[in-house]
Design goal:
Strand content: 15-25%
Number of helices: 3
Distance between the termini: 29 Å
Low-confidence stretches: none
Number of strands: 5
Shape: elongated
Largest sheet: 5 strands, mixed
Mean pLDDT: 84
Amino acid sequence: MTVAIHVRVRLFAIQRQLAGTRLVELDLPDGATVEDGWQALVERFPVLAPGRPSVRFAVDGEYADPDAPLHDGAELASIPPVSGGAPPEPRRILELRDGPLPATILDDLTAALATDADGGVVGFVGRTRVTPGTPAP
């Protein structure tokens, strides 16, 4: 194979855990497609192969089909499926408070919203910032 393009592949969630890395550098032939990038990735990490039927892709931040072309310097994101969603009858809580939130706010919300069918509860307590911060490597 004559190497013509260099592609960075980003892995997320279970793929990142299985491969043991979040970023893989690949050298591919000119004219390579997203699917070619996936095949090269699976050659390096065969453990990823069974997930192919449910993987989606993005090239440079835009969703892409497997036959989409790659270019030198492209960032290919391999996006595994995500689970979850709202229960049949979504419950919403709106509460306005004057003053700081109690330290137990996440426990209180978990007790009010989570069910035994939920896999986890994620909460953010803090402030957002005006600047976007440092980009991920």
